[in-house]
Structure formats: C-alpha cells, structure tokens
Amino acid sequence: MARPKPATSRLSRFFHYRWCVPALAAFDALGGHAKFVTLQRRLDVNRGSLQRTLGALVEAGLVSRNTGYGHPLRPEYLLTLSGRTAASLCAVLVAQLEQLGVVDLALRKWSLPVARAVARSGGRFNRLRTELGTVTPRALAQALRDLQEAGLIERQLVDDSPPRADYHLTDDGRRVADLTSALALVT
Fold first, then answer.
1. pTM, two decimal places
2. Which domains are assigned to the chain?
3. pLDDT band at 2; cut points 50, 70, 90
4. Taking a C-beta distance cutoff of 8 angstroms, is the pair 114, 104 a contact?
5. Residue 46's closest CA among 24, 17, 4, 73?
6. 124 and 164 Cβ atoms separated by less than 8 Å
7. Which residues contact 105 (CB under 8 A, 6 or more apart)?
C-alpha cells in the first residue's frame, strides 16, 4: 500500500508549473470547462507550457479531458469535483495576488510553498528547508528574498551566538499563506 504524499510535497508539485493556479482560476471564471485555445488566449501562454500544465492538472485529478466533445485536435477540458474546489480557491488566490500586485512573483515555483512553510513551522532557514524537502538552498534563499521584496514576509536579525535570521509573515503574507494552505488540502 502506497503512503500518501505529504501536503508540502503535493503543493510543491502543484506549483512546479507556473500556470496551474491561473489555469484553474480561468476554469472557474469560464464555468468549469474550456477549450484549449480559449485557455491559451485567456492566459496568454505558449502552447507547450499550457500542454504541460494541463497534463499536470489531469494527473493530479483536478481536470479531465472531455472525450465526447468535438475534434481531437481541439480538445475541451472539464474540472473534476475536487478541481472545482481547487479552482474556486485559485480564483480567490489570484484576485488576492492581483490586489497586492505580486502575481508574477508569487506564482514562481517556490514562493507560495515557502510562504506556507513559514506560516507552519516558523522562519528559520534550515527548518524551512527540512519542511520543504526538495528545495535547494539557493532556491529557498531566492524565494525568501522575493517574498520579502513583495512585502509578504519580514526578515528579522536575531543577536545570538551565532547571529541568525528569522522570517515572519506580514498580514498580507498571512492571508496568502492561508489560501495556499487551503489549496494544499485539495490538491
């Protein structure tokens, strides 16, 4: 019997593709179904990126291909039941990120998983690395810098021996991390 993957691992896989969240938000706005070309135009994404994203969403069980629809070269995709829940959360998340003006930064591979990890286990670098598992030190450092620049986390230097840095979420960061945590439950 296979053990279930930890939520952080599933979330990291989900955010591996930059277009997963915007695609699910687009599905939500389009009533739960969309043709490939409609999604491509709405998201302004290249064909290969969208194909990889939809493949990942199908594999995750959030989207399915509508086999009874039209021409095979013009496929339509449908949200699954769990995909509907995820899509509504993604729509709220994208709206929140747009309001804060940090959509591009937040939808990078590690940004939102790092924000969630800061919310869950505190902000020590090595503790975050342990929680995230597969993140490299360089990727974690870059995500922390990006989140700090966006105003979603604060870096606090602690005068200790040796000195250390702790990271804490701002109020905006807490709201984004809460939405990300809710999304982790359904992805």
1. 0.84
2. 17-101 (1.10.10.10), 111-174 (1.10.10.10)
3. very low
4. no
5. 17
6. yes
7. 111, 146, 147, 149, 150
